[in-house]
Design goal:
Blueprint (H helix, E strand, L loop, with lengths): L12 H12 L3 H10 L5 H8 L13 E9 L2 E8 L5 H13 L5 E4 L3 E9 L4 H17 L2 H9 L3 E9 L7 E9 L6 H20 L6 H4 L2 E8 L6 E9 L11 H17 L1 H21 L4 H12 L9 E6 L2 E9 L13 H9 L5 H24 L4 H15 L4 H10 L7 H12 L1
Helix pairs in contact: 1-2, 4-13, 5-7, 9-10, 10-11, 10-13, 14-16
The structure holds (R)-mevalonate (MEV).
């Protein structure tokens, strides 16, 4: 228990590091060197990153890669991806090139509505609460005027507020269920500020509502928070071509390929164990772009997986059809993304990513992200149903294994050449390194 510390956040950065090193590290000098090696040499830039969160001690790098040649609605994009998994960017680039030669990706935003809720407890007559809500609703909206002014000027704002009775699920539990249009902002701060104002006005007005008795007047606000489940903030992306046009170096028999590919997607539609892994592959593409563009990948993950289970059973986010000789593959997902505010206007690499994407608005970004997910899934299912996943995966992983063994440049070149004609497995790489070093 001697490791308990109070007031840690008030220490300076170097005091925090010194305390950590003294408390948990045996080789303090090398740990300190490591921490400092990851500091940016530009003090101002480092300070910017330090101040994103509390108790920053250093930076944690992820590679920022690029998958070029994405043709989306007839515009060509190079897509930025922040991810550590070795095969993801390669697979995305390969899928982009494949579909570039077959008309590219088509994407459309279906809806853009966000949701927030005030959760409260009311002990009393429901019809009186309904009457109170009808009376107070215009005031709830009016009281948020200073928060909504700018958003409304741009064409967004509060769409509606509903009273929802949830007492069948939990005694005395009701909600103010509000919907919002937040345009190019992800909208979390805007929504949460509106909700907290609704809660304050709702509680205050209830105290004065003449038809309530003493108990009814005392509404308990439990919490006010946006929902990351946004089934009405939907985007769809699709690829399609004649089955014969699927023919390529990797697909010698397009009829057989299309049939097996569709079977693989059907399995993910009905089998949750497969659906989770299938969707994980989709999220490889989605999270990487969401992260590179400074958006909240945890929010996206939570919302997307809830959507995958919307019909009561966890299922695939992508679908495939074969009709009249045409192969079609598509995704439909909820994505609450922003291209203004938050990290998007702060992190220099996010600004760089946005410029690379030709300064998208939120709808453009929804389409790009959905396409990245679809492309990733196409690449994974194509590999799984043809060569198997390990061939490409291990090829990309080869460099990681060589780095683990601190291979020199000469050794790397020799071994990369060797594994062009040999199967990469961990033990095969170890054997080859040992043989080379003998
Ligand atoms: C690995 O990160 C992702 C895959 O497992 C996805 C899939 O199985 O579809 C290859």
């Amino acid at each position: 228990m001697h490791n308990i510390i109070s007031g840690f956040s008030k220490l300076s950065k170097s005091e925090k590091i010194d305390w950590l090193l003294a408390t948990y590290f045996t080789n303090q000098d090398s740990a300190k060197t490591l921490v400092q090696q990851y500091w940016n040499s530009d003090d101002k830039l480092q300070k910017l990153h330090d101040e994103f969160i509390e108790n920053t001690i250093t930076n944690y790098y992820l590679p920022l890669g690029v998958a070029p040649n994405f043709l989306i609605n007839d515009t060509l994009y190079a897509i930025p991806m922040a991810i550590e998994e070795s095969s993801v960017v390669a697979a995305a680039s390969k899928a982009a090139k494949f579909w570039l030669e077959r008309g590219g990706f088509k994407a459309e935003v279906i809806s853009t509505e966000k949701i927030g809720q005030v959760h409260f407890i009311y002990e009393g007559d429901t019809s009186k609460l309904e009457a109170f809500f009808r009376e107070v609703k215009p005031k709830l909206i009016k009281d948020t005027a200073s928060i909504t002014k700018n958003m409304e000027r741009r064409g967004g704002g509060i769409l509606d507020i509903e009273l929802r009775n949830k007492t069948e699920d939990l005694p005395n539990y009701y909600q103010l269920h509000a919907t919002f249009e937040t345009l190019d902002a992800m909208g979390a701060n805007f929504i949460n500020s509106c909700l907290e104002q609704f809660a304050t006005s709702f509680k205050t007005e209830a105290l004065q509502f003449k038809d309530f008795n003493e108990d009814e007047r005392n509404i308990t606000i439990v919490m006010s928070i946006l929902s990351n489940y946004v089934p009405e903030c939907l985007v769809r992306a699709e690829v399609s071509c004649n089955i014969e046009d699927l023919k390529s170096k990797d697909i010698p028999n397009p009829q057989e390929f299309a049939k097996k590919f569709k079977q693989a997607v059907s399995i993910a539609e009905i089998e949750p164990y497969r659906a989770v892994t299938h969707n994980k592959g989709i999220m490889n593409g989605i999270d990487a772009v969401v992260l590179a563009t400074g958006n909240d990948f945890r929010a996206v993950e939570a919302g997307v997986h809830a959507y995958a289970a919307k019909d009561g059973k966890y299922s695939s986010l992508t679908h495939c059809s074969i009709d009249n000789g045409v192969f079609k593959f598509w995704i439909e997902i909820p994505l609450a993304l922003g291209t203004v505010g938050g990290l998007t206007s702060l992190h220099p690499l996010v600004k760089f990513a946005m410029e690379m994407l030709q300064k998208p608005n939120a709808k453009d970004l929804m389409q790009i992200v959905a396409v990245a997910g679809l492309a990733q899934n196409f690449g994974a299912v194509k590999s799984l149903t043809t060569t198997g996943i390990q061939e490409g995966h291990m090829k990309m992983h080869l460099m990681n294994i060589l780095n683990q063994f601190e291979a020199t440049l000469v050794e790397k070149n020799k071994l990369v050449e060797h594994f062009k004609t040999h199967t990469v497995t961990h033990s095969a790489v170890v054997d080859a390194i040992e043989a080379l070093r003998k």
